[in-house]
Amino acid sequence: MSQAGDAPPVAVRHDLAHVPLAPPSRTSGVLEVFRRRYLLRLMVRREIQARYAGTAFGLLWSYINPLTRFLTFYFVFGLLLGRGLGLENFAIHLFAGMVLVNYFTETVTSGTRSLLSNKGVIGKMALPREMFPVASMLVSLWHAVPQFIILVIACLVTGWWGDGPMWVPDAVGMGAALLGLMLMMVYGTAFGLMFSCVNVIFRDFQRIVQTFINMVPFTAPMMYPFHIVADGTRIPSSWLSVYLANPVAEAVMLIQRGFWYPTCAPNCAVDPATGAALPEFASDLYPRGFIMLGIGLALLVLGQWVFARLEKTVPERL
Amino acid sequence: MAASTTASTTASATTSIVVDNVSKTFRYQAHPTLKKVLQGKLRGQSTSETFKALDGVSFEVQQGESIGLMGLNGSGKSTLLKLVSGVMRPDQGQVLTRGRISGLIATGAGFHNELTGRDNIYMNAAMLGMSKEETDAKFDDIAAFADVGRFLDTPVGNYSSGMFARLGFSVAVHVDCDIFIADEVLAVGDRPFKRKCLKRMKQIRESGITMFYVSHSAGSVKRMCDRAIVLEKGRVGFDGDVDEAIKFLHYDGDDEEPDGEELEEDERDDALANDI
């Protein structure tokens, strides 16, 4: 009667007569996440801040880890193994792939856990729950940025000191790298969406996912050159199409095209015995990339559908 | 059937909440191990027994009404709140609401221990649907109400439980909402803060916001609400006048003497409610 009496009642102020009665839990799926960008941004920032909270170096850890990893690669793969396999700048070959593979595996594993690890909020507040796997993807993307920076520095330094040419990014190469990144983004989000719900219902799932995720780095040509898979002597050539159907392998080759390929001349991969040039990448690299992006987008729609079906029962199962 | 016809005939522009023949079923054990499932199969028992937390609940709330939701522990109050707030969906029937919902299903839900009070206020406000500009405009009020002083810029993990609860409550009551849900708000906080809460809730009520208030305290429901719904094992046992609801629940002390502590608590809440 006193303080509140000055303002018009809520029903008038919000014009409630023209607000429809609606189910309080109604959302429009992934689109709802982008309608509430502000909340998404806060959630992503929260995760990023929380990761290095209380550490003295803070965000610097995001640079230290990939840098030490690159140096390890340089000594082990570049100096010890590279020559024997006929690969030039093996460390960049590997590190470029690793940036995307790390991004992908981090998106999928953290996405799979995202609903379970936020159960305190999900059980008590009505939020579009797609928010959590999408936020996981964006947090992983944020952590990929320092790795990209290290990769660029490594490419420049290699050009400066190495025998090869200066690394000059070309439009096709950068487009390829971007396509590779988009592939991992789309597939990672699609799997994150699907797996996060399944993981709530069937909690062994995150361990199953982890088991398969551990294999992922070996399914792409980064710790070994592409030609040893393609030459048909080690694995039957009929299996090559299965190998190439893997979006991770495709994305790895695309980013290598952008960063590793321009650092070596005249050939990136040669037969160590004869010195003959060998293929660095699969043929039809770009058409394959676009087809896989299309399939990935379809998978994303499927992921949203699965999520919408399963998320109804999520709060009571947490 | 009867419920849906009444819903359609009385549905008007000022209906705030419609709960129409709603049921919600839970499983007793959500995550049986493979071993348990196999053991159950061998013994011919089912491991997935269910119970109905809510069973055919129907009622309607007009904009501006304040409803006291009462009932014994396990009668389905929290489940009903979760359905109204949109956290859960009903298995059968439907829940409809009009406008923005704020409130406290649990204070401090979504607070992140590593983040400061300030960051958590923004986070929590965004979860309740507030924009950055809206939060900026109300930030000083929120901080003043929470009254955590210099702790505002320290991680909430270091807060006392009372400060934690105050911060959560403070954000929830500053949302410009149409429906306010309050679950056992008076269970936390000291006396001065309880008084502040009740005062604020009275303001909310007077500004025409629909209030949904859950409490075991007969005194505060009597002061805060103009209608009470009593749940009994997932069904609406009583819906109507607050005094009669309290009688229905035997909370008025006629039939059985509540123990001293409970009585004292009730009296204190009564006194608080009278204060404001």
UniProtKB/TrEMBL annotation, chain B:
Entry keyword Nucleotide-binding: yes
Domain ABC transporter, chain residue ranges per copy: 17-258
One protein family per Pfam: ABC_tran
GO cellular component: membrane
Positions with biased composition (Acidic residues): 253-269
Entry-linked PROSITE patterns: ABC_TRANSPORTER_1, ABC_TRANSPORTER_2
SMART domains, sorted: AAA
GO function terms (MF aspect): ABC-type transporter activity; ATP binding; ATP hydrolysis activity
Spans annotated as Disordered: 252-276
Record's keyword terms, sorted: ATP-binding, Nucleotide-binding, Transport
Protein family according to the UniProt entry: Belongs to the ABC transporter superfamily.
Listed name of the protein: ABC transporter ATP-binding protein
Origin species: Nocardioides ganghwensis
